[in-house]
From TrEMBL:
The lineage of its organism: Bacteria, Pseudomonadati, Pseudomonadota, Alphaproteobacteria, Hyphomicrobiales. It comes from the Bacteria. It holds the Pfam family ADH_N. InterPro entries: ADH-like_C, ADH-like_N, ER, GroES-like_sf, NAD(P)-bd_dom_sf, QOR-like. This is Quinone oxidoreductase. The keyword Nucleotidyltransferase does not apply. Residues 10-320 form the Enoyl reductase (ER) domain. The keyword Secreted does not apply. Keywords: NADP, Oxidoreductase.
Length: 322
């Protein structure tokens, strides 16, 4: 058995691969052999220390695998079941013990790779579209990082719901990917002014909702894309955390609203987790949402995976093979 351990937060050199032994699962727990691990920006936040964790720790929030042992009192899964989870630190490992109520059964027709590549990102897209801002048919939406892991799912699902999808990407290579994801308009941040282009695409009105996962570098200009009373959903900080020293900026730009949500406030109960996951798997099985696994890395190459993600060299989702 192997896992990644972080003793001190910092750069990718802090990602240490070690051998370990795993005890039997306790009451309410199961032991899983991982088959695929999801890579997410939240992993970077934990590695750098932006999000605190007691050290030493094993990073990673999402993985799929096979149940090998079941602890006392567990009734929702059994040995041999294929399962997936997100929101439980410690996924960068070949095996782990985990609370059974964190697990979601993987339905037939959905692979372990797709499950690990999509659960955290897909549940994020679900709450963004259905719970944080309930997208209505005909609504315009502006999505930063439209070719990324969450952005790819968010744009496809939003288009399916009848949204007018405007997406922004960071390079020429990502423009066709965003179009494949259902974007009606694609903006290339490397050579286009996204505020100007969003206004142009909406006849000067702006959009009722912006979904921004980039953070510091785009936050203020993203506000300029909103129509009066519009909602700015800042759900990530790939370019750095956002601060608003002057709340008056919201009134000056049209009595705007801002929310900084996180996934795990929308999956507080096992029932919520499973219901939202089933909604995701339903659109995946119906090919409404196609999950693009753009990259795969071995667990021993986790530093390369982090570097690619941070430098915006990835497209779609990335998985780690244990």
């Amino acid at each position: 058995m192997q896992k990644i351990v972080i003793n001190q937060t910092g750069g990718t050199e802090q990602l240490n691969l070690v051998d370990f032994e795993l005890g039997t699962p306790g009451a309410g727990e199961v032991q899983i052999k991982h088959t695929a691990i999801g890579l997410n920006f939240i992993d970077v936040y934990f590695r750098t220390g932006l999000y605190p964790a007691e050290k030493p720790f094993t990073p990673g929030m999402e993985a799929a695998g096979i149940v090998e042992q079941v602890g006392e009192g567990v009734t929702n899964v059994k040995s041999g079941d294929r399962v997936v989870y997100c929101g439980a630190l410690g996924a960068y490992a070949t095996h782990r013990n985990i609370a059974a109520d964190k697990l979601v059964p993987i339905p037939d027709g959905v692979s372990d790779d797709i499950s690990a590549a999509s659960l955290l990102k897909g549940l994020t897209a679900h709450y963004l579209l259905f719970l944080t801002y309930k997208l209505k048919k005909g609504d315009a939406m502006f999505v930063q990082a439209a070719a990324g892991g969450v952005g790819s799912i968010l744009c496809q699902w939003g288009k399916h719901l009848g949204g007018y999808v405007i997406g922004a990407v960071g390079s020429d290579e990502k423009v066709p990917l965003a179009k494949e994801n259902g974007c009606d308009v694609v903006i290339n941040l490397s050579n286009e002014d996204f505020v100007e282009k969003v206004r142009e695409a909406t006849d000067g009105k702006g959009v009722p909702v912006v979904y921004d996962s980039l953070g510091k570098d785009t936050f203020e200009k993203s506000l300029d894309c909103l129509q009066p009373h519009g909602l700015m959903v800042s759900y990530g900080n790939a370019t750095g955390p956002v601060s608003i020293p002057d709340l008056g900026i919201l009134s000056r730009k049209g009595s705007l609203y801002v929310v900084r949500p996180k996934l795990f406030d929308y999956t507080n109960t096992h029932e919520e987790l499973v219901n939202n996951a089933n909604a995701l798997f339903d659109v995946i099985q119906k090919n409404v949402v196609k999950v693009n696994i753009g990259q795969k890395f071995d667990l021993k190459d986790i530093a390369k995976a982090h570097n690619a993600l941070e430098n915006r060299q990835t497209t779609g989702s990335t998985i780690i093979l244990p």
